[in-house]
Amino acid sequence: VREIAIIGGTGEQGFGLALRWAQAEKRILIGSRDKDKAERAAQKLRQAVDSERANVEGVENGEGVQKNFKGGDLLIDVTVPLETAFGGQAARVFTPWRGSAAEQAAELVPPGVTVISAFHHLGANALQNLSQKIDCDIIVCGNSREGKESVKALIELIPGAGFVDGGPLENSRIVGALTALLISINIRYKVKNSGIRITGLNEQTNGQ
Ligand SMILES: NC(=O)c1ccc[n+]([C@@H]2O[C@H](COP(=O)([O-])OP(=O)(O)OC[C@H]3O[C@@H](n4cnc5c(N)ncnc54)[C@H](OP(=O)(O)O)[C@@H]3O)[C@@H](O)[C@H]2O)c1
Question: What's this model's pTM, rounded to 2 decimal places?
Answer without folding.
Answer: 0.95
